[in-house]
């Protein structure tokens, strides 16, 4: 680990003695926790990850005694800088995430602060209940963070916001008292309570009573007002003291557990997607649409539509519900117990749209799957907006201005003109139903001129908000970016009242100082992520990063919104799902790379052991390439990092054996029986673990005594192609370890009437062709480029004639489509990439074109499929299902799984074996064990099949093998 600064060494040591959880004071860890999803970066004093509530209490006590400020933190996805400070950060998301109680009868639940909203709702679903504050970051937003932020969500027009749905909070004050905050009757003497609690109630009532006239005059009369403290909820006749903590942004207390109000899940939902020719017309129509009592009205504007169409994962989604080229669409949702009533509301919407002058402008979404698709696009709105590959990005600082609906069209029109007057434009999306639109002007936060423009725009926007009697903090809170403007928003008296609230709860100013009260300037560049003088170090890169303006530009695409923090089944990010460490997260790695590339972690940080440790558990699954809405490609970044690391540190024996496998495979295969003895002869497993680091708990791949050869197919001239030619890519792994898969694919292709070419230089005394995957995995980019050049040269005569190159191993085949283009950009590389297809992609393509006429016979009643990470990353899983469904009478089920955990050589290594198995045990292995003995297990990845065999003692097979059986 990197060294701890001497001034905090004693604090770290004391915390380590007292806590069960982790204590992270090294420079790299502090750097990873210095940012959230805002424009700000403030390095913490240190980080603790409490394992228990006692840890949380102890950390607060020790921090207080040491004189450092305290900052509780959840998912770290705040938009305004609430969760960054020069404080002791307490990350509650990893361990403090239990459900304490579900009281279905009384529709309430008690949870710890670190539980994510999606996980809570998954647990509530069997009871027919849910927590309805549906923030877009539900997969990683913690209930504690949502409570501290007074979050809102898309359905707030129907269910209200957090302050309406939090019943009570058990909190720890900075002074050490543990108090229960909940409903308090007018007669305070009627309840039993700690003296400190009674004092707080009296003080809050005194403040609210003193400022009653100001509250009535200055607090916006809108649901979407989350700025300041909720002193407007305090009533001498009785009120809920928990409401004072909701929206307090960690400035008053830390939460131990939170009691929530639950709601019944509506039995039915329908949606109508209303298309408008102009943004103004969409905004103007909203005030009429809400009269139909929808549960939500969400905006998707032209910018978001166009950006989404450029992102592979979202392009087909947009095509399903956006017709033509509208300037804006409003997604209107109705829900309830009666499906007919919901549909009737949808028909009323269509009539209303016609009356407003937009006939036939509504796309119905009554299908649950389509509704989920629309919901996913809506939830990812922020990340879609942030996917712009340019220096300027949509910046959050007037993000949540909320105004009355009747003023929404005029307000947005005037604000657009403000943007134009400053030479920029804004992106708009989100909650039209409550007059709160997420608007982000496009600015470059590295540019001093754009920083000045940011302040000018903010001042103009907030002036307009006050003019319309709206709220400048409509959902995402205050933090650094909006606290400064409270005095203009609420007036001096109420800002002083907010200070009095802070003083009552936190007299020493210990909790998250400078947020809500006594704030810094929002444009203080010393607090920015891109501080004055920010510049990447000079670096000669091994891969092509021109699309992003350089390697650092690609790294900076991470906006910290944390989509990679989701823990449910899916590809991204498998190592985080296993360890739940910020370090082992796409976001954590990107932040560390950015800090290293800009010299903030020291001149040698990029090639340091700490950086290697940061990148260690990235399994290059490429899930982020597809699933990260801003396109952070950590697999490619890891290759670039390893290239530089290897140049400084060289290659060990184990890594050399793995990376140079393609070079010695031909010779080694002749003595494969010696290598195979490792798993047979007693003692050799332990010896290989000691000498090479290969886990003794693992079996190694078995060398075949009859490798595949190009001589097994008849030589054919590519110049004589008749349109039914294919090149079979005989990758190194399949050739020397599982040649039966290549032979099965060869038979299938030939039986389907294709002429199969196998390019095998060995027949002429040359060396086997290889994609260079193993070299890339070790950072040996120059060696990988040499292999890529050989393969491109060998395949060019075929692809120039339109002959596809068909491969079996996903990690190899997709190297042609992905890494080749990063290593050797150019027309020839692109041509090979365009013609490279997985076996099942080729079969599915030919089936769609009605070019497959052979009869397949039944082979099993069911096939259970695990997708290789790269198949998922490149959207090839549909082709797997299509190919398998050629087999009659066979049910095809795809396991909803992340990475299998093997990831090439990763899972074979002793140091990774436990993490590898943890990845597999999340989804894959339980599903395999639950499958009956007659179910065919399908996995196209070599390492995936190996993991299934090692972890569940079951044999999985390649798609080609099943089709071969069905054609036999």
Topology diagram in text:
Layout: H1 6-18, E1 22-24, H2 27-32, E2 46-49, H3 53-66, E3 70-73, E4 88-91, E5 99-103, E6 108-111, H4 117-124, E7 129-130, H5 143-149, H6 156-159, H7 162-165, E8 166-172, E9 178-181, E10 183-185, H8 195-210, H9 212-218, E11 238-240, H10 242-245, E12 254-261, E13 263-264, E14 268-276, H11 279-289, E15 296-301, H12 302-309, H13 315-321, E16 328-336, H14 339-355, E17 362-365, H15 368-379, H16 381-385, E18 393-394, H17 408-421, E19 426-431, E20 436-443, H18 448-467, H19 479-483, H20 486-490, H21 492-505, H22 551-555, H23 574-579, H24 586-597, H25 609-615, H26 623-627, H27 634-649, H28 653-659, H29 661-669, H30 672-676, H31 684-692, E21 725-729, H32 732-736, H33 739-751, E22 755-757, H34 773-777, H35 781-799, E23 805-807, H36 810-817, H37 819-823, H38 827-835, E24 836-838, H39 839-848, E25 862-866, H40 869-873, H41 877-884, E26 891-894, H42 913-922, H43 924-930, E27 936-939, H44 942-952, E28 956-957, H45 959-967
Helix pairs in contact: 1-3, 8-21, 11-17, 13-15, 17-18, 33-45, 35-38, 39-41
